[in-house]
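Board notes (copied after class):
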Amino acid sequence: KLSEHSWLIDPQIPIPARATAVHHITDSMVKGKPHFAEAYKAFRTELGSAVLLAHNARFDMRFLDAELQRNALPGPHNPVLDTLPLARKTLPEQKRHSLGQLATGLKIPQEKAHRALADTDCLRQVFERLLAQRKDVVRLSALVDACGGAKHFTGEQATKPVVTAPKADDAPSP
C-alpha cells in the first residue's frame, strides 16, 4: 500500500452549508487546523513526481488552482489522469458516471463518501475495475488517451492573491 495522508485545512472563510452537506466537514472541525499554504508544502513533498489520478479532475483542479493563486503558490507539475472519460468510454451504457454511481454499478463498497481517503480508495478500485475491462490499454500512451489525455495545473504563480474560487454550488451532489 502506498503512503497516505489526510489533512483538514482551515479555509479561513466560513464553509458554505451546501459544502458541509456533501462532505460533512464543519467550521468547528477546521478551526485551528493548518492553513492551505502550510499543508500544501507537505503535500508537494509527499507528491514528488507521481502521476495523479482523479475523477472529474477539472473540478478538483479548479479548486486547487484557485487556492494556489489565492496564496501566490506555484502549482504542481504532476500530470493528472481523469477517470471520468475512461468510465464514459468503458461503460457507455451507464447513464451516470459519477464516482458514486460507478462504485455502485461495479459493486464497490463506499464508506464516508466525499471524504478524501475514502474517495481515494474508492477511485482506486473503480480505476482498477475499469482497466480490467479495457483490453486495448496495454501501454501508458493508450491509458493516457483512454483518460482523455493528461491534464496539468495552470502552474502560474499569482503576483497578487486572488480571492475567488469555484462556487460550492458547482460541487457534485451527494
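Comment from the instructor: Confidence is low (pLDDT under 50) at residues 157-174. Helices lie at 17-23, 27-30, 36-47, 57-70, 83-90, 99-105, 116-133, 140-146.
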